[in-house]
Amino acid sequence: MADKMSHSNAHRSTAPAPGAEMVEAYGGGTGFRFKIRNVRIDGGDNVVHVRAGGSHEVSFDLLHDCSACGNAVNQVIVGLAGQDRAQASVWNGKQRSGGGVKVVNPGSHVEALAEDNPGPAEWVNVSCDVVVPDEPGVYSVRARYAQAYQGRLMTAEGRAVPQPEYQEALGWWKVDRPDGPGPESAIGTIVVEA
Questions:
Q1: Ramachandran sector of residue 99 (left: φ over 0; alpha: ψ -120 to 50; beta: rest)
Q2: How does pLDDT run across 108-129, given as a tens digit for each residue?
Q3: How far is Cα 179 from Cα 45, in angstroms, rounded to an integer?
Q4: Which residues are registered as beta bridge partners of 55?
């Protein structure tokens, strides 16, 4: 069940203001894991009104710059508030975004495409599809981190290579957050009109 407001409250959005950045803080330390900006849903703004549910394309710029993450393989996952799992993994890599497509853990059962940028972190554009119910309401699109060993790399370069959706990463939606990502993790809003 997605977290949604009644149709009469559709004007109240949980999405950040246009031009704002969503920041995923690094828990237990200083700094951040990643930032998201320039969210577009179906090629429009970060808040869209649609006549029916179904699949909608979400794209955004992402900066992952987490020196405190060590050598972990990190993911950024996206889904709807109130659901039990994320719907998509959009970024997979080590500390810093950018630097092109590489393979991490080659030859192992956790091999995956990733970014492992040896230089300064770079903003990259990623995209995925999010499915909203047909029931009228306001659906908050949110993002958070995962640290499974595998996730999809959905940059333009990564999308050119067929990749499975890694279920373990999607299962991180409620890890350390029993209700899933909160309002501070909102990146967009899809309003299904009656």
A1: left
A2: 999 999 998 999 999 999 999 9
A3: 27
A4: 131
* Global pTM exceeds 0.85: yes
3-state secondary structure string, the chain? CCCEECHHHCCCCCCCCCCCCEEEECCCCCCEEEEEEEEEECCCCCEEEECCCEEEEEEEEEEEECHHHCCCCEEEEEEECCCCCCCEEEEEECCECCCCCEEECCCCCCCEEEECCCCCCCCEEEEEEEEECCCCEEEEEEEEEECCCCCCCCCHHHHCCCCCCCHHHHHHHHCCCCCCCCHHHEEEEEEECC
Region class of 43: left (phi > 0), else alpha (psi between -120 and 50), else beta: left
Q: Is 148 left (phi over 0), alpha (psi -120 to 50) or beta?
A: beta
The Cα–Cα gap between 188 and 192 comes to: 13
What is the pLDDT at residue 59? 98
For residue range 130-147, list pLDDT tens digits in order.
999 999 999 999 999 999
